[in-house]
Amino acid sequence: MKKKWQLSLVIVFAMTSCILYIYQMQLKEKVEAYREELMIKNEMEELEHHLANKSFIEEGWLDYTTWEASNELAEMLYEDSEGAFEKEWGWFLAGISQQYGVDPLIVYELLRTETGGTFDPTLVGPETQYGRAYGMAQFMHNTAPWIAEKAGLPYEDDLLFDPVYSIQLAVVYLDFLYDKYEDWDHALTAYHRGMYGLEKYIEANGNAESWYAVEIQENAENYDWVAFTGE
100: how many CB neighbours lie within 10 A of its CB? Predict the structure, then answer.
């Protein structure tokens, strides 16, 4: 009888421990989800403030020198991608990057990495716990709408498959992230993992030098192209 009583206590203790463990894990997941939701809300507010105070280059910035540089960039990216990155996209990337003050080669290499080198504007990413990513810049449906709204752009899910639209969203978001963190390691890792994911990465690794950020920056440095000098 005593052994049965002891065995019953062990079973009750084990079951209680198991229930407590499950409860703790569920609570941890809820806390992390709340923290991430709060960070996204803060990110939306910061982006709105950033764009409200952004000093854009005036529309008259385009002249012969900048056009020549834009055309050279478009030709170079077209050849580098073996025709996958169309010249029209290169011209638009050159113009929008100049307007926001973002390195177009960083954007180009980000698009290459996001699409696995295909530059496919119709790409649909794999299923994740947050959903799928869409288009050349691989934005998710929970992120793209508020970036578009803050940038004064229209939004429909299908627009993420428009390469020019996708490029502009990427430039707007990268400009915001670089302004916030003031270096490309943090900005690119945040683009890839989200701002909450960036924090988790830094906690685990002690820095923001993810393979994603390092690869994009190293590849962007390999081009023989003179950046815009005129404003």
Answer: 21
The pLDDT, as a whole number, for residue 231 is 41
> Are 89 and 170 spatial neighbours (Cβ–Cβ below 8 Å)?
no
Q: What is the pTM of this model?
A: 0.76
| Domains of the chain: residue spans and CATH | 35-220 (1.10.530.10)
**SS3 assignment, position 131:** strand
- Render pLDDT for 158-214 as a digit per residue (tens, 0 to 9): 999 999 999 999 999 999 999 999 999 999 999 999 888 999 999 999 999 999 999
Cβ atoms < 10 Å from Cβ of 62: 16
Share of the chain above pLDDT 70, in %: 69
Alpha helices for 53-183 (secondary structure H): 64-80, 87-100, 104-114, 144-150, 163-181
> What is the mean predicted confidence (pLDDT) over 42-54?
60
- Sign for the pseudo-dihedral over CA of 65, 67, 68, 70: positive
Decide: residue 83, CB within 10 A, 0-12 exposed, 13-18 middle, 19+ buried: exposed
Phi, psi angle pair for 192, to nearest 5°: -75, -40
Can you tell me the distance from the alpha carbon of 21 to that of 41, in angstroms, rounded to the nearest whole number? 30
Helices (H) and strands (E) in the chain, counts: 8, 2
Pair type for strands 133-134 and 139-140: antiparallel
